[in-house]
Amino acid sequence: MALTQVSSNKRCDGYQKVFEHDSSELKCKMKFAIYLPPKAESSKCPVLYSLSGLSCTEQNFITKAGSQQAASEHGIIYINISTFTVYSGCNIEGEDESWDLGTGAGFYVNATQEPWKTNYHMYSYVTEEVYVSLVTPWGGHGALICALKNLGKYKACIYLTLHRLKLFSGYLGPDKSTWELYDATVLAESYSGPELDILIDQGRDGLFLSSSQLRPDNLIAAFSKQKIPVVFRLQQGYDHSYYFIFSFIIDHIKHHAKYLNA
Amino acid sequence: MALTQVSSNKRCDGYQKVFEHDSSELKCKMKFAIYLPPKAESSKCPVLYSLSGLSCTEQNFITKAGSQQAASEHGIIYINISTFTVYSGCNIEGEDESWDLGTGAGFYVNATQEPWKTNYHMYSYVTEEVYVSLVTPWGGHGALICALKNLGKYKACIYLTLHRLKLFSGYLGPDKSTWELYDATVLAESYSGPELDILIDQGRDGLFLSSSQLRPDNLIAAFSKQKIPVVFRLQQGYDHSYYFIFSFIIDHIKHHAKYLNA
Question: Does ipTM exceed 0.90?
Answer without folding.
Answer: no
